[in-house]
Amino acid sequence: MSDQTLTVATTTPWASARSRLAGLGAEARAAARDPAFLAVGILLTGLVLVFTVLPIGTVLIRSLQPKEGMFTWENFLEFFSRRAYYRALINSLILSTASMVLVTTTGFVMAYLCTRGPRVLRGPLTFISLLPFVAPPFAFSVALIILGGRRGFVTQLLGLNVSIYGWPGVLLVQVVSFLPIAFLLIENVLVSLDPSLEDAADDLGARPERILRTVTIPLAWPGTLKAALLVFILAIADFGNPMIIGGGMSLLATDAYSLAVGEQNLRMASVLSVFLVIPSLFLFVIHRYLLRETRVTTITGNLASSQSRRSSPIILIPMLAVAAVVGLVILALFGVIFVGAFTEAIGVRNRFTLAHFVSQFGLQYLWTSIKMALSAGLLAAVGGIVLAYILERKRIPGRGAVEFLALLGLSVPGTVLGLGYLLAFHNPPLALTGTLLIMVLNTGFRELPAAMEAGMSKLRQLDVALEEASADLGVGPVGTFLKVVIPNIGSAFMAGLIYAFMTGMITVSAIAFLVSPGANLASIYILQLAEMGYLGEGCAVSVMLILIVFICVVGLKWIARRTGFDIIRGR
Amino acid sequence: MGDTVLELVDVTKRFGAVAAVAGASGAVHGGELVTFLGPSGCGKTTLLRLVGGFLEADGGSILLEGKPLHGVPPHRRDTAMVFQNYALFPHLSVADNVAYGLKARRLPRGEITARVEELLKTVQLEGFGERRPHQLSGGQQQRVALARALSIQPKVLLLDEPLSNLDAALRVAMRAEIRRLQTALHLTVILVTHDQEEAISMSDRIAIMRHGRFEQVGSPLDVYESPATEFVATFIGRVNLIPGRLSPGPEPSHATFDTWFGTLTLRAPASPLGGSSNSSEVRAVIRPERVLLALPREPLPRNTFRGEVAESTYTGQVVRYTVLLQGKPLRVDAWDPVRVGRFPEGSAVAVQFPEALHLLPAEG
Ligand SMILES: Nc1ncnc2c1ncn2[C@@H]1O[C@H](COP(=O)(O)OP(=O)(O)O)[C@@H](O)[C@H]1O
Ligand SMILES: [Mg+2]
Question: Are residues B29 and B124 in the same domain?
């Protein structure tokens, strides 16, 4: 009793530091009692270090080496002295900012309409906003060329002389491609925003646009900002769309690729990559660590009386006009992909054909893609879930750092990881370039964070008492993991697997550096077809990818409905 | 009591197949506090939201000072609502919450500041203006919500279960507080609640709701002492409903009431006989505290019967008995057990009924 009093009385900073050290010791001791998981944890951390951190590090180091063995800023000086290089940085920043503003605005409009708009339109508008999610992003570029390219359908119909290549095309396609993610994040926050707040503003005499300005937007701001940052990261990392429809415009991701693969200038490609990494990581850290909670919590919780709101026509009519344009563009692009896949040459020879589907390479590469994405998905799901369990449940020191390193695979643009793999795994001891394995590893470790996050969020909802009960009944840590944890977070595992597979099927940015004629993928093949002008076959391969992704999304929806776990919405 | 401020004429609102409000009619006068009281799901909130303009009625009309409100959106109605969850803007300070409606009306800045200060003083929150809502206790949040609603000087103040989020002690204190504000500022208030004690202690008049209609509208005394229907009688307070036959008595000023345990002599009741000389089947509404218990003494006085205590529960304030009269139970509440003495279970008692009873027509 008196001991206790004494301890409390002498809690000085020194004592608290000592007790924190003791705490760390206790964590380490607890981990040591669990040797199997400690070993697996160290192994997984090692793999993350080799296959995520090492490639990025190699790119950074390479950017500082004008020649082997030298370390100077010389490459960066060269970058800033030549307009051809730094213009890519400026263009990328402008493009990503513009894309961010456009996508976030569109996403807000669609989400607003789907939560406060006319009830009959909510379903269709949600569907349209999410539709682009199932297509490989660059498929829209192919469609846009068919519509508005030099010999495009609409171009010839209207006798237009404006070029869709370059800024307008890339921006348009990015708006369509990134709309779903912005929509989901903003809709999430608008749904959780208690409608009685807007009712209260209305009641106090605020007119509709005032309510929007003083209540809805300020309260939806955290989620909207999150969406904006994410779109910026996606836009600056976007590779497929600028490749197809950029018309040679200078951008960091595409220039890094041409420098590395076309000119074998790995040095300057690395410098450009550094400029890709810096903003991405910066925004990622803000996004993840500084904007923690996006849900608006109501002050006192009884939502029983609040009812879903319908906004007024003054707000809805302009928004509906925007939605109509966006919706028509999305449907038109989708339509063109499907029509193009079954037409000999759209606008030129409008005859039905199945020839685009039975081309020799298309199916072969699709099969390679499936093998690659499935292996990568398994790697991501197994690694991600186990890592999630260790990070979330085993009090291992330094787990925050391990989590951050694993997340790099998600936050660093694919172009950088592609270049990193090319640099790091070209020579022994890990000479992997040109193999299918390198693509599996690359995609697997880029998708691992998604599965890991899924596992962690599921684990946070799982009562630790279940595991304690299992241990209490005499089952060891590994047995508990297999018999109690896995059955309960199986939905996160399946969702992680399907999600990683799906993303692996349509990824291009990193993989573009790693494909070889012997090991080509369907998604890259679309890029190559578009470059050669074989748009019909590009559409056909896109349709096959869309179908596969669509099936995956249906599977994920099914999991979400059965288990309440929705990996796409992240909750 | 002032003139009619708000009038409801046969108001109806359906949600799909559910008629949430099904023909509610009534009036609210200036300066009075009217309570919509009823069980959960009877349409109270829906009716209040119809008055506030958050919902549009399917049928009937709502008139504010004689002008129909149909099609008038909330921001152009002279009503103000205190929401059940207060709906305080979490991103604004207390003062900015209260100023919100004044800014929307583009009042000069100096005037807004002065009015906000005055309002915060009215609800006893001086000096809290700079805080954020989440830094306040539940009771303080409630006061902010009140001040914010009062800021726009509404013709009718609407309160949706305003006390349901507070703990028991605070709830009782806030009842008095709201009542004090209402009388001091001569406010016209509609309050929604499912808590009968709240309704009885705060209201000028109570409108008992059932299935989207007003079952009875009257003063607290009226609805408690003279419930119009069995539903009202059983919803407000505990009650004995005693079936029997009412006949004209030997003297014209009295009637006789035959029940299963004997015959009561009543002072001639107005309803439901309506002066008819025939006898009729009725039910007497007898509150447990109106019945007196005593030790049986021969001869038994008028309207007094022998019974046996089957059950007794001491609640501190009152002893709740179940007394068997000819084998059938009757609820009796006896106050002040220290002075009267407490009857043990199984003991014989004399049960005395009052001469004036409120009567309802028989079932069916
Ligand atoms: N927005 C709505 N959609 C469908 N039914 C509703 C809606 N609001 C209320 N209801 C239904 O209307 C009836 C009355 O509800 P309400 O007015 O909230 O009752 P109270 O406030 O008396 O508890 C209930 O049956 C309720 O389920
Ligand atoms: Mg209610």
Answer: yes
Q: What residues of chain A lie within 8 A of the CB of B75, using their CB?
A: 202-208
| Domain-terminating residue out of B206, B235, B264 | B235
Query: What pairs with residue B158 in β-bridges?
Result: B81, B190
- Distance in Å, CA B22 to ligand 1 centroid: 12
Query: Which structural domain, as residue segments, surrounds residue B262?
Result: 240-361
What confidence tens digit (pLDDT) does each residue in B214-272 have?
A: 999 999 999 999 999 999 999 988 999 999 998 887 777 888 899 999 999 888 665 55
Q: Residues of B with CB below 8 A from A209's CB?
A: none
Cβ–Cβ below 8 Å for A300 and B165: yes
Residue with the bigger pLDDT between A2 and B99: it is: B99
Whether the pLDDT of residue B34 is over 90: the answer is yes
CA A295 to chain centre: 21
Q: Which residue of B has its CA nearest to A217?
A: B91
**Which residue ranges have their beta carbon within 6 Å of ligand 1?**
A 307; B 15, 18, 20, 38, 40-46
Question: Which tokens in the block code for residue B70?
Answer: 């149909």
> Could you give the number of structural domains in chain A?
1
Residues 6+ apart with CB under 8 A from A128: A110, A326, A327, A330, A331
Predicted TM-score of the model (pTM):
0.81
Residues B220, B295 within the same domain: no
Supply the DSSP symbol for B325. Answer: E
Phi then psi for residue A147, to 5 deg, are -80, -50
Tens of pLDDT, residue by residue over B132-154, are: 999 999 889 999 999 999 999 99
Give the range of the structural domain holding residue A411, as residue numbers without chain letter: 32-562
Q: How far is A298 from chain B (nearest CA, A)?
A: 7
Q: Tell me the torsion sign for CA atoms B287, B288, B292, B298.
A: positive
Asked whether residue B46 falls in the same domain as residue B74, the answer is yes
Instruction: Give me ligand 2 centre to Cα B172, in Å.
Output: 20
Its ipTM equals 0.78
- Same domain, yes or no: B228 and B245: no
Q: Measured between beta carbons, which residues in chain B are less than 8 angstroms from residue A193? A: none
CATH number of the domain at A482, please: 1.10.3720.10
Closest CA to B330 of B277, B279, B259, B269: B259
Task: Say whether both B59 and B206 belong to one domain.
Answer: yes
Digit-coded pLDDT (tens) for B311-351: 999 888 889 999 999 999 999 998 877 777 788 899 999 99
What is the mean pLDDT of the segment spanning B145-171?
Answer: 90
